[in-house]
Every structure is written in C-alpha cells, then in structure tokens.
Amino acid sequence: MAPSPLHRLFGSQPRTVRLDLSATPAVPVAAGGKPWSLWSDALGTLAIRSLQVLIVVGIAAALILGILQLTVVTIPLVLALILASAFAPVMTWLRRRGVPSLLATLLTLLAIVVLLGGVTWLIVWAVRDQWDTLATQAQEGFQKFLAWVGTLPFDIDQGQIDEWVASLGEFVTSAQFGSGAIAGVGAVANFVTGFVLMVVMLFFFLKDGPQMWAFVLRPFRGEGYTRAVRIGDKTVSTLGSYVRGTATVAAVDAIGILIGLLILQVPLAIPLAVLVFLLAFIPIVGATLAGILAALVALVAHGPVIALIVVGVVVLVNQLEGNLLQPFLMGRTMKLHAFVVLVALTVGTVLGGIVGAVLAVPLTAVAWGAVQVWDGPHTPARWARPKQADAATR
To answer: What residue ranges do the domains of the chain occupy?
Structure first.
C-alpha cells in the first residue's frame, strides 16, 4: 500500500503539532533596532497627541453645531434645568410637609411664571407710562446735540445733516428694514415657542427630576456611578446657588440704583432698575451696560451733571455689592478667575448671543465644579489638585 501524503510528510508515526497560543507575537522592528521608532520618539508622541486633540475638538465642534441648530430646544432645556435647580429647595420643603408632588409642582411652577410675568409687565407698564416724556426729552436732547455740532471747529453744514437724516429715513422705509422687521416677528414667535417649551420642561424637572436623573444613571456601574452621582449633585447645587445668589445680589443692586434714580428724578427709573436686575446675570459686563444706559437716559433728561452723578451711584452700588454682598451670599460657588469669566462670556456671546452670555458663566462653573468632585466629594481630579495636596497624597 502506497504511503499517504501525511505519512510521507510526518513519517510512519503521527506526530502531534502543538501551537503555543500564549506566545507574544513578534513586534515589528525598525532598521535601528527600536520597535515603532517613528511613533515612539518625541515627534511621534507629539503627532499622536495632536491627532487626539484634533479628534476631541472635532467632536466638540460637531456637538456645538448641533446645539446651535436646535436652540429652540436646547436653550429652553438649559433654562428649565437652571430654574429647577434654583427652586429645588422649595420643592423639598413642600414635600417634607406632606404636600403631594403634583400640587407642589404646580404651586412652584405658578410662582415662577407669575414672577417672570410680573417682571415683564412691570417693564412694559413703566415704559409705556413714561415713553411720551422721554421721547419729548430725547427730541430736545437731539436738537441740543445738533446745536453743539454747529460749534465744532470743523464745518458740518445743514445740508450734510439733512442728508444723514434722509439716509436714515430711506433705511427705515427700505426693504432691508422690512425684512429685519419680519425677522423680528419670527424671533418673537420663536421666543413664545421656547417659553412654552421651557415651562413644560420645567414642570417635568420639578415633578420627576430625581426619577429622570436615576434613569440617566442606569448605564453606570461602580466608581463611574458614584462619580456621576457626585457630579449631578454638584451641578444642581452650583446652578441653584448661582441663580439664588445672583438674583439676591441683582435685587439689591436694582433697589439701590432705583433709589438714586428716583432722588435724581431720572425718567424710566423703574424700567432701568429692572434692566439692572436682568443685566446682573451677566457678570462684569452687565453692570457696565446698565450704568451706561442709566447715564444716557439721565444725560438726555437732565444734562451731563446729573448723568455723572448717576454714574457715581452705579459705581458705588456695584462696589458695595462686589466687595460685601456677593462674597457673603455666593461664597465659593462661583470661584472663577476674572480672566476665565471674560473668556466664557466672549465664547458664549459669539455662540449664543445674549442668552449665551447669560448661560456661559454658570455652565463654566458647573464644569469646574465637576472637576472639583471628580475623585471624591472634596477631591478634585489629579491634574487640578494643588501641588501641596499632591504631595500629601503620595
């Protein structure tokens, strides 16, 4: 019988072939004797890190673009979350006293809507009540301005002034101005839609916020779950403290400036005080804008001397608030460097306009708060720890 190919290959006795699966595969070695030398040297490490940074930046840019495309949903969502965090102690207080969850939610939501509606009505009523007086004073101020222009050392004849006024009239009656007015109507419609959506989201956040957060945490396990719980608690406490502290500080600012404007008999004192309250939610820049607007109204109504006094009142109130009231009420909740605040404001304004400027600082504070509890209730992430803390933990 002719031997089979297997007998010819292995011989008369079959041999067992063993494969060592635990052996480490050979690593490609470059000509210089070092594996992957193109990626293991300093330039290769820099290239890998650069690629990682580009990927992260690309993902972040895609997320930001997606958020900007859905501002009708994302902005009401964030505002509802902030308001729910601010009024979380009210919900807790009502529930501890036996108030049913639905009734507590309706009472809190009604209080929020009445508060926001009252502020809006106050602005509209005050402006409508004093608008005629301010318009008359504005016309007189404009005539004084034209008379002052005539005293300048360089010549500006009446023909040039008439040409500027005619250009302004043509712009108001042009199609461009009309399209802007139509866009304004669309913005009002978006605002109403966003406000209704925010109220609905706020209702569910107030009523079922803990259950919704527990559902979000279901995929997490072990240390990841514990860390997510810490970050969630820190987010709620940071947003709530920010809104309550800022609202209290803004109210004190508004009352102080209102008293000064009433004493100086500046028109639109109530709307200007309300505007001071609203602009206080934009750190650093808001107080400056409020002071400029109040000074301009005082300048039109009573001249430069009263305007300078108004500026002094605004500066005095802001200094008292910044050095005494704000540190006492807000503590370390918003412990952010002024440079970080300015950068956050700039980025938020570029991306989201006025709403972005309002939300930029609290969201930045939330991100920093998450870093502060990353490794424990009072233990920041390793890269964010002070050097002394690092030395103590070694």
So the answer is: 69-216, 221-387
